[in-house]
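Q: What would this chain look like folded?
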Amino acid sequence: MKEFTAFFAVPNPEINDDNEIQQMIAEKTGAKVKETWLTGQTAEEAVGTLIAGGEYPDFIEGAGGQKQLYDAGALVALDDYLDDYPNIKEFFTEQEWDSLRQDDGHIYWIPQFSNIYGEERTCEHNDEAFWIQTRVLKWAGYPEVKTLDQYFDLIAKYNEENPTMEDGTANIPYTIMCEDWRYFCLENAPMFLDGYPNDGCCLVDPETHKVTDYNTTPTAIAYFKKLNEEYKNGLVDRESFTQTYDEYIAKLSSGRVLGMVDQWWDFAFNAGDAIKSAGLDKQGCSYVPLPITIDEGITNQWHNAGGVVNVSSGLAISVSCEDVEGALKFVDDLLEQDIHDLRFWGVEGTDYQVDDEGVFSRTDEMRTQCADTTYKASHLCTYSYFPQWLGTSRDGINAMKPAEQEGEFYDALKDDVKECFDAYGAKSYVDMLGKNDSPGSWYPMWSYSNTYTTDTDAGMAWTKIGEVKHEYLPRVVMADNFDSAWKDYMKKYEECKPEDFLEDLQKEADRRIKEAEKYK
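A: My prediction, written as structure tokens:
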């Protein structure tokens, strides 16, 4: 039995050493991996410590520190190996593999997420949105809520009439997660409010391909002015700018928070399961997304179809690994359909059932079990930061994951969400927002800005901008005089030389568009 080690520079709960499905996978593949996760540091700090020590786990995903690992020579070039591992090779097209080549021409990591096999089956909106609890919408008779003003007006009216939960606990009308890199929950909404997709760091005109800055638009001013007004009105959580991620998740898990901006993956798999386990869905504490823009008539792009290759990071093999072929064989095996089913569906008869037509489903008992923290630690093993498929199974019937299996997805919904979807004529979270095609070959630009270091003028500007936003945007929201606070913020913002950043983004957008032409 081969045993590998892995470190992922993101926080995540560890599974038990005697985890049942991990052992089953080990019996099938001849290998297992001891995973460790980020605790008490930033990704960059953790990666820096590893680099200083010169010893690495076999597998590593550095997240925001991935470029540091590459620059330190800590990673094994993978391109000469790929042809020997058909499941890995199949994972990307030639164009996508080429997009992963670094400046030395080699490929060092495999982005794990968003790859779609066969037909897309998306039911969840795994991305960012303005979320709201179903109880708020139900109380108002399931109204159409399309603008920022309508969203906050609804929350304000509901909270005025219903200031507490059933047990008397005070509601939190709106909270904001601002800790470390998660401050996107505060700062990047203007991009979406203007009807743009998540390029993360800028706006790209779909016709002219001109890159512009979403931080200084009229919509950005209107959005932060609205947050400032609602802070003064008492709707915005006073602890928004000091709370930790754990404290934020605890608030969501308690059912007290009526609304927030966040990425689904950032809260749904811990707070969402906690809400269900506590029965708070029966009070309407589940979250659904709304198609919010700054004004009516703007087509929102909160949800885009298709997969996104995050070229900035992914699963890598370190130079400390003594069995690179064995490590790659394990990754290849994880993409075999029977093992992929074990990872995401579990054990047949225990975690899911199969009908006479070969369709997978779960009973209510199975769903409750699979959401239980203790059960997940002892039994389930998704190897969640290893490569994985979305879309349709190789059997042509089932989805690669339960959340994408239309019937299973709908049956698994909490009753308050089902009632909400039915009221809006929706069958999924995606239906609540609408679906857009991928905007263009430059998309998403965040996969480029995530690679910035302070070694370049653009990277230095980007770093300074982040620091200024962290310091000044909370001040803007809490200010007695918004106009004065915004002026102070803009003065500091301009001192960061954002033009260096934007000029570099324009070059990269143009390069991506030109590069994509080769494959048409």
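The chain is about 40% helix and 10% strand.
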